[in-house]
Amino acid sequence: MTMAPELPTAAIVTDPDIKAGYAVDSSLGAHCDGDFTLVRARDLDDVVTVLRHAQATRTPVVPQGARTGLAGGSVAIPGGIVLNLEGLDTVTEIDPIEGIAVCGPGTINADLKAAAAQQGLWYAPDPASSGSCTIGGNVATNAGGLCCVKYGVTADHIRGLQVVLASGEVITTGRRTSKGVAGLDLTGLFVGSEGTLGVVTEVVARLIPRPEPPLTALAIFDSMAALTRAIVALRLEPHRPSLIEVLDSPTMAAIQALGDYGYPAEATAVLLVQSDRAGHATEDIARYAQVLEAAGASDLATADDPQEAELLMGGRRMLNPGLEAKGPRFLEDICVPIVRLGDLIEAAHRVGAAHGIEVTTSGHGGDGNLHPSFFFDPEVPGGPGSRAAAEAAFGELVTIALAMGGTISGEHGIGTLKARWLEQEVGAASLQRQRDLKHLFDPTEILNPGRVYWS
Length: 455
Ligand SMILES: Cc1cc2nc3c(=O)[nH]c(=O)nc-3n(C[C@H](O)[C@H](O)[C@H](O)COP(=O)(O)OP(=O)(O)OC[C@H]3O[C@@H](n4cnc5c(N)ncnc54)[C@H](O)[C@@H]3O)c2cc1C
Known about the structure:
Elements: E1 12-13, H1 16-20, E2 37-40, H2 44-57, E3 61-64, E4 81-84, E5 91-95, E6 100-103, H3 109-117, E7 121-122, H4 135-141, H5 148-151, E8 158-164, E9 170-174, H6 186-190, E10 199-206, E11 208-209, E12 215-221, H7 224-235, E13 243-248, H8 249-256, E14 269-275, H9 281-295, E15 299-302, H10 306-312, H11 314-317, H12 319-324, E16 329-331, E17 334-335, H13 341-354, E18 358-360, E19 362-364, E20 369-370, E21 373-375, H14 387-403, H15 422-426, H16 428-441
Parallel strand pairs: 2-4, 3-4
Antiparallel strand pairs: 1-2, 5-6, 6-10, 7-11, 8-9, 8-10, 12-14, 12-15, 13-14, 13-19, 16-21, 17-20, 18-21, 19-20
């Protein structure tokens, strides 16, 4: 039997107060009921050493970025190792000719955008957590965001990866070149695998020309039918908006509670629409205004310049503080065919009412991707308004989204939170093939065990 290599002592953090900050992600109720080893990797060697040690000792490893995840995927496992990658945060290369950036997994999304911007380029994926989440976490969750409606999700912007496998072996996937079809698409397999197949240690990201600062249209709707009509019509436009975000009435109220962002109390929903098309944003916004009016918008405001455009987005930027202020909640992440968007919002309200739960619904309307929140009072021991009622409402809406032909997670991932519904969506045979693949890459199941594939 080979001796297990020692963990890299200099990278281990033992201070319990610091460790506490690395125990959980941002999902509701995330907790770790026991001690764990925290390694803050300094380089590739540290990652390899940790995995070799873990393999030899059969110790669970949780790859971890900035812990903004909302599915419970980067929560520490008692007795396991948290392998934090935030220290691998260097952008080593920007190649404007190939249109790529090479960076460490710990690079903050906004920092990669800033580095690309210096060369007139743009890394498009923009989760609302862009200022704090890491590219490694984005790759592992195939993160979405606000501009996916035009630019796609993280998977559409990753050309290649360096990955350390459970055995400690280092592989590269994909390519740097703009084309390439050699072999199976292992990059695609690792993107969205939530730390269960390997640890991402380098990312080759695709960059595109930097767009114009966007212009905005804000439309008020008095019915879900008109809202859905508007989104469908916008999707059919030859020049797709770069953002289509929706806020329902209770969400507007939560935001208005923090300040006056101009949302009328009696409205059913607000739709925010942007264009960033170089040289044509003014023309696009005028066209979108016509589309929104024809669909039945009851009020409309458009911006003529980027400053005004940002003002119209002011309320949307207060979404998270507004919802946070309302108290504890289960946060959904479901995606349905776009034509069913209004039905899904109404279903969320119905399900909430049936459980005595306050519900807000907002999200990336142009993708059919909604984030309903089910609020509860932790002091209520059971029944209407309780945590159990909110959890039940959360589960019911997942099933409703599936019945509409949707998915249990649009962008946050499966983690521990959605694992029990994965089979319902993909089917038993497909889930078994996924488990087979997991077994191939991680035969001793040390990488993020208990997550994604286990129900
Ligand atoms: C306020 C707020 C807004 C958000 N908005 C959005 C949004 O608009 N769109 C969206 O998609 N998400 C959003 N999120 C969720 C979250 O930011 C994303 O899931 C993000 O990609 C997680 O990145 P992270 O660095 O925090 O990863 P973590 O939370 O640390 O980890 C997430 C998962 O990735 C794995 N992982 C992390 N790093 C690696 C690595 N190097 N190798 C292998 N596996 C790894 C972990 O094991 C875990 O399974 C939001 C979260 C918050 C708190």
